[in-house]
Design brief:
By secondary structure, this protein is α/β, with parallel strands linked by helices. 34% of the residues lie in helices and 20% in strands. The strands form two sheets. The chain has a ten-stranded mixed sheet with strand order 3-4-1-2-6-5-9-10-11-12, sandwiched between helices. Strands 7-8 form a two-stranded antiparallel ribbon. Strand 3 and strand 4 form a beta hairpin. Helix 2 (102-110) packs across helix 11 (329-347) and helix 4 (136-151) crosses helix 5. The protein is globular, with a radius of gyration of 22 Å. The termini are far apart.
Length: 349
Amino acid sequence: MQNVLGRTASLAVAASAVLASADAFANELPGYDRLAISAPHRAALVQGSVWYPLGTMTYRSRVGDSAIFKGAPVAMGAGIKPGRHSLIVLSHGSGGNMDGLAWLASKLVAEGFMVLAVNHPGSTSGDSSPRRSIKVWERARDLSTALEALLADPAFAMHVDRERIAAMGFSLGGLSVLQLAGLVPDKQAFVDYCARMKGARDCVFLAKGGVRPEAIDASGFERPAQDGSISAVVAVDPAMGYAFKPQSFTAVDLPVRIINLGKGADLWPEVDAGPTGSDLARKLPSGSLSYVAPADHYAFLGECREGARQLLDREGGDPICENAPGSVRSVVHRDVAKQVVAFLRQALK
């Protein structure tokens, strides 16, 4: 009998250890859920995703996996960790999508943040059109509308610290969050930029779709989109840094960190926010600029799968899986996340 009891006790201890190990593993996962957001400026619902610190476990899934990129594990539809958490509204770049930055959202959640991301219709994966991508005012409204929806959703609103909401964007998404900060695009400055910087990637992309900068709808392009709910902004390699109305800089009354990927030849001139480029960071009243190097623009995208480069070559895609000399994408991701977290902890105090 004692042997039986001893074995039973041992099994119970082992089972408890397994459960504890499973709980510990689960708590390393970000919670994840999706939203369908009604947006008056869009013909259809805007798709959103919410990443958050895990409270109670449901089941493990993966988000952001594709033939090109590696995704990240999540706890799908899980409970949210009790309390209020700082929130980051996240905007993808042209041709990206809300789950393509799974690596970033996961790292931010691990630091205690919630993340709200959206798919921008017309400039998202498989739906990236030059004619619709240039409607930058719609992207900014996507973010504000999604934030309003989240703060009205009883499942999530109680967990958001409304005094600590930031916005972060990459490339064209960097432009979107700078608009939320108060900057206003300038059509004529953009026309001049495309004429002056021959071969600029954004201007070339628009030209492929028959978009002429001088024909852009100024009433939309120059529409203010400042969002008073945002307390800090991070823009990584922001697009159109040369094309903001000078007077709009004085409207930016919050801290803004610009992160450039790469230095020297690896830093794209189109997104250079330093003195050798648009000097955007210096023009912002509370702006600051930092670098992650060695790196280049594409390093902000997810880690690529084995064989992804060959697949892109066969399909004539952009070299989004190529890395700058000496650059390791996972290291770039780590360093970007460190800079973002350090900046936001200070800016959202």
